[in-house]
Amino acid sequence: MANTVPDFARVENGALAGKFLKKFWQPIALSRDYDPGKARRIQVLGEHFTLYRGEDGEIRLTQDRCPHRGTSLAYGWVEGNSIRCRYHGWKFDGAGKGEDFPAETATYASRICLKTYPTREYLGMVFAYFGDETPPTFWKFPELEDESRGELLAQAVVLPYNHFQRIENDHDEVHAHYTHNFMPMFGLTELPKMSARETEYGMVSIATRSDGSRFDSHCFMPNILYREVPIPQDTTKMAIHFACRVPIDDVSMLSFMVNRVGSYDKEAERLASAEDYAELTRRVMNCEITLEDVDPAHPLLPIIQDTVSIGGQGAIVDREQENLGQSDVGIAMLRRIWAREMKAIAEGTPPKQWYRPEDFSFSVRALEVIQEVNGG
Ligand code: FES
Ligand SMILES: [Fe+2]
User: Topology of 26-128 in CATH?
Assistant: First the structure.
Protein backbone atom coordinates (compact mmCIF):
# COMPACT_ATOMS: atom_id res chain seq x y z
CA MET A 1 0.00 0.00 0.00
CA ALA A 2 1.28 3.48 -0.82
CA ASN A 3 2.46 5.50 2.14
CA THR A 4 -0.17 8.16 2.90
CA VAL A 5 1.36 9.76 5.99
CA PRO A 6 4.22 12.15 5.13
CA ASP A 7 7.57 11.10 6.55
CA PHE A 8 7.94 13.43 9.53
CA ALA A 9 10.48 11.14 11.15
CA ARG A 10 13.46 10.68 8.85
CA VAL A 11 15.90 13.58 8.71
CA GLU A 12 19.07 12.05 7.28
CA ASN A 13 20.44 12.21 3.73
CA GLY A 14 18.41 15.18 2.54
CA ALA A 15 15.02 13.96 3.83
CA LEU A 16 12.32 16.65 3.78
CA ALA A 17 11.80 16.74 7.56
CA GLY A 18 15.54 17.38 7.97
CA LYS A 19 15.41 20.19 5.40
CA PHE A 20 12.47 21.72 7.31
CA LEU A 21 14.34 21.62 10.64
CA LYS A 22 17.40 23.18 9.00
CA LYS A 23 15.37 26.30 8.25
CA PHE A 24 15.36 27.17 11.97
CA TRP A 25 18.03 27.78 14.61
CA GLN A 26 18.52 24.57 16.57
CA PRO A 27 20.00 24.05 20.04
CA ILE A 28 22.95 21.68 19.73
CA ALA A 29 24.76 21.73 23.10
CA LEU A 30 24.83 23.18 26.58
CA SER A 31 27.05 26.25 26.98
CA ARG A 32 28.46 25.03 30.28
CA ASP A 33 29.99 21.95 28.63
CA TYR A 34 32.40 24.13 26.62
CA ASP A 35 35.17 25.89 28.47
CA PRO A 36 37.56 27.95 26.31
CA GLY A 37 39.94 25.54 24.59
CA LYS A 38 37.44 22.66 24.63
CA ALA A 39 36.39 20.86 21.43
CA ARG A 40 33.86 18.08 21.03
CA ARG A 41 32.41 15.99 18.24
CA ILE A 42 28.64 16.27 18.05
CA GLN A 43 25.98 14.72 15.85
CA VAL A 44 22.91 16.62 14.67
CA LEU A 45 20.40 15.62 11.98
CA GLY A 46 22.53 12.58 11.14
CA GLU A 47 25.73 14.56 10.49
CA HIS A 48 28.83 15.03 12.61
CA PHE A 49 30.31 18.43 13.41
CA THR A 50 33.14 19.83 15.54
CA LEU A 51 32.11 22.35 18.16
CA TYR A 52 34.71 24.30 20.13
CA ARG A 53 35.14 27.40 22.22
CA GLY A 54 38.06 29.66 21.40
CA GLU A 55 40.13 31.62 23.90
CA ASP A 56 38.03 34.70 23.09
CA GLY A 57 34.99 32.91 24.56
CA GLU A 58 33.22 32.55 21.21
CA ILE A 59 31.80 29.16 20.35
CA ARG A 60 32.44 27.86 16.81
CA LEU A 61 30.87 25.10 14.77
CA THR A 62 32.71 23.60 11.81
CA GLN A 63 32.50 20.63 9.52
CA ASP A 64 33.79 17.62 11.41
CA ARG A 65 36.21 16.08 8.93
CA CYS A 66 39.56 17.66 8.30
CA PRO A 67 39.84 18.60 4.61
CA HIS A 68 43.28 16.95 4.46
CA ARG A 69 42.52 13.26 5.00
CA GLY A 70 39.27 13.29 6.90
CA THR A 71 39.87 12.69 10.57
CA SER A 72 37.63 14.47 13.07
CA LEU A 73 38.90 17.91 14.01
CA ALA A 74 37.35 17.44 17.45
CA TYR A 75 40.31 15.23 18.43
CA GLY A 76 42.77 18.02 17.77
CA TRP A 77 43.75 21.12 19.72
CA VAL A 78 42.13 24.52 20.14
CA GLU A 79 44.91 27.10 19.73
CA GLY A 80 43.74 30.62 20.47
CA ASN A 81 40.60 30.82 18.38
CA SER A 82 41.81 28.27 15.83
CA ILE A 83 41.57 24.51 15.66
CA ARG A 84 44.51 22.26 14.77
CA CYS A 85 44.00 18.74 13.46
CA ARG A 86 45.75 15.99 15.43
CA TYR A 87 46.58 13.87 12.39
CA HIS A 88 49.08 16.06 10.51
CA GLY A 89 48.67 19.39 12.27
CA TRP A 90 46.67 21.43 9.77
CA LYS A 91 45.33 24.51 11.50
CA PHE A 92 42.24 26.58 10.62
CA ASP A 93 41.36 29.98 12.06
CA GLY A 94 38.11 30.88 13.84
CA ALA A 95 36.40 31.63 10.54
CA GLY A 96 37.51 28.29 9.01
CA LYS A 97 40.32 29.65 6.86
CA GLY A 98 43.46 27.51 6.39
CA GLU A 99 46.13 29.09 8.60
CA ASP A 100 49.08 26.73 8.99
CA PHE A 101 49.69 23.40 7.25
CA PRO A 102 53.12 22.44 8.64
CA ALA A 103 54.19 20.11 5.81
CA GLU A 104 52.73 22.30 3.05
CA THR A 105 53.21 25.80 1.69
CA ALA A 106 51.40 28.88 3.03
CA THR A 107 49.85 29.41 -0.41
CA TYR A 108 48.33 25.95 -0.33
CA ALA A 109 46.98 26.54 3.22
CA SER A 110 45.34 29.83 2.25
CA ARG A 111 43.34 28.05 -0.47
CA ILE A 112 41.61 25.51 1.79
CA CYS A 113 38.73 26.35 4.13
CA LEU A 114 36.42 24.59 6.56
CA LYS A 115 32.67 24.92 6.27
CA THR A 116 31.47 26.83 9.34
CA TYR A 117 28.00 27.48 10.68
CA PRO A 118 26.53 30.49 12.54
CA THR A 119 26.14 29.96 16.30
CA ARG A 120 24.48 31.84 19.15
CA GLU A 121 24.20 31.24 22.86
CA TYR A 122 20.96 31.79 24.72
CA LEU A 123 19.44 30.51 27.96
CA GLY A 124 22.39 28.21 28.63
CA MET A 125 22.25 26.56 25.21
CA VAL A 126 24.37 26.78 22.06
CA PHE A 127 22.25 27.23 18.93
CA ALA A 128 23.37 26.72 15.35
CA TYR A 129 21.87 27.42 11.96
CA PHE A 130 22.45 24.72 9.33
CA GLY A 131 20.46 26.20 6.47
CA ASP A 132 21.83 27.70 3.27
CA GLU A 133 19.77 30.90 3.39
CA THR A 134 20.00 33.94 5.67
CA PRO A 135 19.32 32.72 9.22
CA PRO A 136 15.70 33.26 10.26
CA THR A 137 14.43 35.16 13.29
CA PHE A 138 15.90 33.80 16.48
CA TRP A 139 13.07 32.85 18.85
CA LYS A 140 13.24 34.74 22.14
CA PHE A 141 11.61 33.70 25.40
CA PRO A 142 11.69 36.80 27.62
CA GLU A 143 9.72 35.06 30.39
CA LEU A 144 12.70 32.73 30.86
CA GLU A 145 15.16 35.62 30.85
CA ASP A 146 13.48 36.95 34.01
CA GLU A 147 15.98 36.25 36.80
CA SER A 148 13.40 36.92 39.52
CA ARG A 149 11.90 33.53 38.68
CA GLY A 150 14.96 31.68 40.01
CA GLU A 151 18.21 30.36 38.59
CA LEU A 152 18.39 29.08 35.06
CA LEU A 153 18.64 25.30 34.71
CA ALA A 154 19.35 24.01 31.21
CA GLN A 155 19.52 20.27 30.69
CA ALA A 156 19.94 17.96 27.72
CA VAL A 157 19.15 14.26 27.66
CA VAL A 158 19.65 11.72 24.90
CA LEU A 159 16.46 9.83 24.08
CA PRO A 160 16.46 6.57 22.12
CA TYR A 161 13.64 7.32 19.69
CA ASN A 162 12.67 9.64 16.85
CA HIS A 163 12.28 13.37 17.50
CA PHE A 164 8.80 13.68 15.98
CA GLN A 165 7.24 11.23 18.45
CA ARG A 166 8.55 13.49 21.21
CA ILE A 167 7.08 16.63 19.56
CA GLU A 168 3.72 14.92 19.09
CA ASN A 169 3.73 13.96 22.75
CA ASP A 170 4.08 17.65 23.66
CA HIS A 171 0.48 18.11 22.50
CA ASP A 172 -0.94 15.03 24.18
CA GLU A 173 -2.30 16.04 27.57
CA VAL A 174 -4.15 12.75 28.13
CA HIS A 175 -0.88 10.88 28.54
CA ALA A 176 -0.18 12.98 31.65
CA HIS A 177 -3.00 11.08 33.38
CA TYR A 178 -1.63 7.64 32.52
CA THR A 179 2.05 7.73 31.66
CA HIS A 180 2.82 10.18 34.49
CA ASN A 181 -0.28 10.09 36.66
CA PHE A 182 0.62 13.73 37.41
CA MET A 183 -2.74 15.38 37.34
CA PRO A 184 -4.43 13.87 40.42
CA MET A 185 -1.53 15.38 42.40
CA PHE A 186 -3.04 18.74 41.51
CA GLY A 187 -6.62 17.64 42.08
CA LEU A 188 -7.25 17.31 38.34
CA THR A 189 -8.77 13.86 37.95
CA GLU A 190 -10.99 14.49 34.93
CA LEU A 191 -9.57 13.80 31.47
CA PRO A 192 -9.22 16.99 29.43
CA LYS A 193 -11.11 17.98 26.31
CA MET A 194 -8.51 18.81 23.68
CA SER A 195 -8.56 21.51 21.03
CA ALA A 196 -5.84 23.08 18.90
CA ARG A 197 -5.26 26.03 16.61
CA GLU A 198 -2.53 27.35 14.37
CA THR A 199 -0.85 30.57 15.52
CA GLU A 200 1.62 33.16 14.22
CA TYR A 201 4.50 31.24 15.83
CA GLY A 202 3.26 27.70 15.31
CA MET A 203 0.35 26.21 17.17
CA VAL A 204 -1.25 25.84 20.55
CA SER A 205 -3.02 22.81 21.90
CA ILE A 206 -5.48 23.50 24.69
CA ALA A 207 -6.62 21.14 27.41
CA THR A 208 -9.77 22.17 29.25
CA ARG A 209 -11.71 20.48 32.04
CA SER A 210 -15.16 21.09 33.47
CA ASP A 211 -13.56 22.58 36.61
CA GLY A 212 -12.65 25.59 34.45
CA SER A 213 -8.96 24.77 34.24
CA ARG A 214 -7.05 25.23 31.03
CA PHE A 215 -3.50 24.26 30.07
CA ASP A 216 -1.98 25.56 26.84
CA SER A 217 0.96 23.87 25.14
CA HIS A 218 2.58 26.16 22.61
CA CYS A 219 4.70 24.93 19.74
CA PHE A 220 7.16 27.49 18.42
CA MET A 221 7.90 26.09 15.02
CA PRO A 222 9.06 23.60 14.38
CA ASN A 223 10.17 21.68 17.48
CA ILE A 224 9.90 23.85 20.58
CA LEU A 225 7.46 23.30 23.43
CA TYR A 226 6.73 26.34 25.57
CA ARG A 227 4.22 26.17 28.38
CA GLU A 228 3.56 26.63 32.05
CA VAL A 229 3.50 23.58 34.24
CA PRO A 230 2.34 23.01 37.81
CA ILE A 231 5.10 22.36 40.33
CA PRO A 232 4.62 19.25 42.49
CA GLN A 233 6.64 20.76 45.37
CA ASP A 234 4.60 23.96 45.42
CA THR A 235 1.01 24.02 44.23
CA THR A 236 0.86 27.81 44.57
CA LYS A 237 3.15 28.33 41.59
CA MET A 238 3.49 27.47 37.93
CA ALA A 239 6.87 27.05 36.29
CA ILE A 240 7.74 27.93 32.70
CA HIS A 241 8.98 24.99 30.74
CA PHE A 242 10.92 25.28 27.47
CA ALA A 243 11.85 22.14 25.58
CA CYS A 244 13.31 21.59 22.15
CA ARG A 245 13.51 18.17 20.48
CA VAL A 246 16.52 17.93 18.17
CA PRO A 247 17.30 14.83 16.10
CA ILE A 248 20.74 13.30 16.59
CA ASP A 249 19.83 10.95 13.75
CA ASP A 250 16.70 9.14 12.58
CA VAL A 251 16.36 7.01 15.71
CA SER A 252 17.63 9.17 18.56
CA MET A 253 17.40 12.74 19.72
CA LEU A 254 18.57 15.30 22.23
CA SER A 255 15.87 16.82 24.36
CA PHE A 256 16.85 20.26 25.63
CA MET A 257 14.89 21.49 28.63
CA VAL A 258 15.16 24.87 30.29
CA ASN A 259 13.40 26.22 33.33
CA ARG A 260 14.10 28.48 36.26
CA VAL A 261 14.52 26.78 39.58
CA GLY A 262 14.99 28.08 43.12
CA SER A 263 18.59 26.87 43.32
CA TYR A 264 20.65 25.63 40.42
CA ASP A 265 23.21 23.95 42.71
CA LYS A 266 20.55 22.04 44.63
CA GLU A 267 18.88 20.90 41.41
CA ALA A 268 22.22 19.96 39.80
CA GLU A 269 23.12 17.93 42.89
CA ARG A 270 19.78 16.09 42.78
CA LEU A 271 20.41 15.25 39.13
CA ALA A 272 24.01 14.19 39.70
CA SER A 273 23.17 11.89 42.61
CA ALA A 274 20.16 10.25 40.94
CA GLU A 275 20.32 6.69 39.62
CA ASP A 276 21.20 6.55 35.90
CA TYR A 277 17.96 7.26 34.07
CA ALA A 278 18.99 5.46 30.87
CA GLU A 279 19.75 2.26 32.79
CA LEU A 280 16.47 2.50 34.74
CA THR A 281 14.58 3.02 31.48
CA ARG A 282 16.32 0.06 29.87
CA ARG A 283 15.36 -2.17 32.80
CA VAL A 284 11.70 -1.08 32.66
CA MET A 285 11.58 -1.62 28.90
CA ASN A 286 13.09 -5.08 29.34
CA CYS A 287 10.36 -5.79 31.93
CA GLU A 288 13.01 -6.45 34.60
CA ILE A 289 11.30 -3.84 36.81
CA THR A 290 8.15 -1.73 36.41
CA LEU A 291 7.78 2.03 36.53
CA GLU A 292 6.25 1.58 39.98
CA ASP A 293 9.63 0.27 41.17
CA VAL A 294 11.39 3.54 40.25
CA ASP A 295 11.94 5.98 43.11
CA PRO A 296 8.98 8.42 42.87
CA ALA A 297 11.39 11.22 43.85
CA HIS A 298 13.77 10.52 40.94
CA PRO A 299 14.31 13.97 39.33
CA LEU A 300 14.07 12.49 35.82
CA LEU A 301 11.06 10.26 36.51
CA PRO A 302 8.88 12.08 33.91
CA ILE A 303 11.56 11.45 31.28
CA ILE A 304 11.80 7.78 32.21
CA GLN A 305 8.00 7.49 32.04
CA ASP A 306 7.86 9.25 28.67
CA THR A 307 10.66 7.11 27.25
CA VAL A 308 8.81 3.94 28.21
CA SER A 309 5.60 5.14 26.51
CA ILE A 310 7.14 6.92 23.51
CA GLY A 311 10.13 4.60 23.05
CA GLY A 312 7.58 1.80 23.45
CA GLN A 313 6.06 2.90 20.12
CA GLY A 314 9.34 1.80 18.47
CA ALA A 315 12.27 4.02 17.51
CA ILE A 316 10.19 5.20 14.53
CA VAL A 317 6.47 4.59 15.01
CA ASP A 318 4.50 3.22 12.06
CA ARG A 319 1.90 5.97 11.61
CA GLU A 320 0.05 3.93 8.97
CA GLN A 321 -1.12 1.56 11.70
CA GLU A 322 -2.53 4.15 14.11
CA ASN A 323 -6.12 5.02 14.99
CA LEU A 324 -6.23 8.65 16.10
CA GLY A 325 -9.14 9.78 18.26
CA GLN A 326 -10.74 13.06 19.32
CA SER A 327 -8.14 13.54 22.04
CA ASP A 328 -5.41 13.57 19.36
CA VAL A 329 -6.45 16.84 17.70
CA GLY A 330 -3.20 18.54 18.77
CA ILE A 331 -1.18 15.81 17.09
CA ALA A 332 -3.33 16.04 13.96
CA MET A 333 -2.83 19.83 13.84
CA LEU A 334 0.95 19.49 14.27
CA ARG A 335 1.09 16.98 11.42
CA ARG A 336 -1.03 19.19 9.14
CA ILE A 337 1.31 22.14 9.63
CA TRP A 338 4.49 20.11 9.18
CA ALA A 339 3.02 18.37 6.12
CA ARG A 340 2.11 21.71 4.53
CA GLU A 341 5.52 23.24 5.21
CA MET A 342 7.38 20.13 3.99
CA LYS A 343 5.29 20.19 0.81
CA ALA A 344 6.22 23.84 0.27
CA ILE A 345 9.91 22.89 0.56
CA ALA A 346 9.45 19.99 -1.88
CA GLU A 347 7.67 22.24 -4.38
CA GLY A 348 9.90 25.27 -3.87
CA THR A 349 7.00 27.51 -2.82
CA PRO A 350 7.42 30.07 0.01
CA PRO A 351 7.03 28.68 3.52
CA LYS A 352 4.96 30.48 6.15
CA GLN A 353 6.76 33.35 7.86
CA TRP A 354 6.48 32.64 11.59
CA TYR A 355 6.72 35.30 14.29
CA ARG A 356 6.01 35.80 17.96
CA PRO A 357 3.22 38.40 18.36
CA GLU A 358 3.77 41.27 20.79
CA ASP A 359 0.86 40.12 22.95
CA PHE A 360 1.93 36.50 23.31
CA SER A 361 0.83 35.10 26.65
CA PHE A 362 0.55 31.67 28.14
CA SER A 363 -3.20 32.26 28.65
CA VAL A 364 -3.34 29.54 31.24
CA ARG A 365 -6.30 29.34 33.57
CA ALA A 366 -4.98 26.55 35.70
CA LEU A 367 -3.34 28.01 38.75
CA GLU A 368 -6.55 29.39 40.25
CA VAL A 369 -8.21 26.01 39.91
CA ILE A 370 -5.28 24.15 41.41
CA GLN A 371 -5.16 26.58 44.34
CA GLU A 372 -8.87 26.20 44.88
CA VAL A 373 -8.72 22.39 44.78
CA ASN A 374 -5.81 22.42 47.19
CA GLY A 375 -7.55 24.90 49.49
CA GLY A 376 -4.89 27.54 48.69
S1 FES B 1 43.83 14.69 8.36
FE2 FES B 1 43.92 16.58 9.35
S3 FES B 1 45.89 17.27 9.03
FE4 FES B 1 45.84 15.41 7.98
FE1 LIG C 1 5.14 13.20 29.20
Answer: Rieske Iron-sulfur Protein (2.102.10)
